[in-house]
Amino acid sequence: MFDTGPFALFKWEKLFSDWRIFAEGFVTTISVSFLGLLLALVLGLIFGVLATSQFRSAKIINRIYVEFIQNTPLVIQVFFLYNGLPHLDIVLPVFAVGVIGVGVYHGAYIAEVVRAGIQAIHRGQLEAAYSQGFTFWQAMRYIILPQAKIIIFPPLTNQAVSLIKNTSVMAMVAGGDLMYHADSWSSNNLYYGPAYIVVGLLYLSLCLPLARFADYLERKAKMNP
Question: Which NCBIfam families does the record associate with it (predicted)?
Answer without folding.
Answer: HEQRo_perm_3TM (TIGR01726)
